[in-house]
Amino acid sequence: MPVARSAPSDAPALHSGALGTSDIAFFVVSAAAPLTVMAGVAPLAILLGGIGAPVGYLLAGITLAVFAVGFTTMSRHVSSGGAFYAYITRGLGPAAGIGAALLALIGYNGMEIGVYGLLGTATQDTTHALLGADIPWLPVSLAGLLLIWYGGYRSIHFGAKLLGVLLIAETGILVLLAIGVLADGGARGLSLASFTPGNVLVPGTAAVLAFAFAAFTGFESTVIYRREARDPDRTVPRATYVAVGFLGLFYAFVVWIAIQAFGDAEVVAAAGADPAGLFFAAITTYVGDWAADAMHVLIVTSVLASLLAFHNAINRYALALAEEGVLPKALARVHPRHGSPYVAGLAQTVLGAAVVLAFAAAGADPYGQLLLWVNTPGMLGLLALQLLAALAIPLYFRRVSHGEGVLRTVAAPVTAAVLLATAIVLVITHLDLFTGASTTVNTALAALVPIVFLIGLALARRLRQRRPDIYARFGTEPEPAQPLKEPA
Question: Measured between alpha carbons, how far is 171 from 110 in angstroms, rounded to an integer?
Fold first, then answer.
């Protein structure tokens, strides 16, 4: 039995008890960037899937809720801040766990760093729409890197409150649109035709499902905040279900509202004519020009909220891996006042700046290449981690004594594994819809996920030979320093 790692009792640590259910849910939902997903991606889902598109988001939400059953059950038994890789290690072994750890680092970094390209282009669009000014994207993205670094440097309590405000604002503008459409009765009267089998069971639904699963990326990060949660055995599962339930229902509702704004017979043509302007046209018609201006601004803040949420998740993964002894020990340092993994945050910011500057130096398009080419393997990597975790959960519970039911430990994770495998196939087969790139580029982007995992397996083999002590205890919970209490 490996000896647990320990840290000096007076060493700075993450703030214990800083986050409640709503705080953690804010992090997760903010990472999904609901306003950006709706205004930027939902019109394409309508264009491809027709008026049955809302059901695609409901089905994705149901799939991930099934996954969450086993995932949150395991969170009560494995409390490591490494989440995905810790679960996979316990079920599939240290080699698979180390491969998963590398995949998680690449996946979460890909999901964040690519979005700096979106920040640049979204800010360009906003300043052009509101001021008629054209600004370069690179200074905006670099300024965003500094803002996000500062947000991660401050306490997790600060980040949770900031994300709460930003999330309420971005969802609020969509609720305002919904109120306007419902009060007016829509373009042709309110209709529930979107939910009839004839409009759902169409060839385009597969593409909608691919978009829908991508819209939930990052929801599983609830467990990363376990060490900072109040009563984590209750708070983490609640936050997970709240996040999945909210996103699934809210996405479906807002897409349905957009359809009602134009009418069942007209919305597909409207989405095809101007997908980027669909939501702006709707809110202008039903609320007013001022609301469209506000939506432009709130898309920028939505992107910033997503960046901060992913930045905090990445920092905690790096902290956990540094505590494992896999990453440099310096990344495990926690700020004595803010209780933040500030060295990991600085390292992540430097990495992000290097990638952004490299794409800029190559003359790459910030949206079509920096965002889509970096985000896509990140999204696929996180979906692959969900699948591996779903496979690991029943294997783990077969090996340990527990009082959990078969539904939570076997039925739900096995069902989730089948559904997630189907989702991955859907995303890969429709990758051109995400990237707009050639088959060669799409193949390379998809291939990065198994390549990274295989590199992780090779690193695991090397670690087993050269550092067998670290390999043997990988994925077990270290004994962190005595936690700091969040100051009043």
Answer: 25
Check whether 3 has a pLDDT greater than 50: no
Q: What are phi and psi for residue 7, nearest 5 degrees?
A: -130, 155
Residue 192's identity, in one-letter code, is L
246 occurs within a structural domain: yes
Contact between 135 and 121 under an 8 Å Cβ cutoff? The reply is no
- The DSSP string of 210-250 is HHHHHHTTTGGGGGGGGGGBSSHHHHHHHHHHHHHHHHHHH
Count: domains in the chain: 1
Number of C-beta neighbours around residue 5 at 10 A: 15
Phi, psi of 16 (to 5 degrees): -80, 140
Does a structural domain hold residue 6?
A: no
Q: Specify the pLDDT at position 477.
A: 60
223 vs 78: CA distance, rounded Å: 10
Q: Which of 213, 226, 234 is nearest to 419 (CA)?
A: 213
Position 237 in a domain: yes
How far apart are alpha carbons 110 and 334 in whole angstroms?
Answer: 24
pLDDT, one tens digit per residue, over 146-195 is 999 999 998 887 888 888 899 999 999 999 999 999 999 999 999 999 99
pLDDT tens digits along 107-126: 999 989 999 999 999 999 99
Looking at the predicted structure, is the pLDDT value of residue 10 above 70?
Answer: no
CA 119, 125, 131: angle at the middle one, nearest 5?
Answer: 125
Q: Residue 409: give its domain's CATH number.
A: 1.20.1740.10
List, for residues 219-233, the tens digit of each pLDDT value: 777 888 888 888 888
Domain assignment of residue 248, given as a range: 15-485
CB-based burial label for 87 (10 Å; 0-12, 13-18, 19+): buried
Alpha helices (H) along 325-478: 342-361, 372-399, 406, 412-429, 431-435, 439-466, 468-473
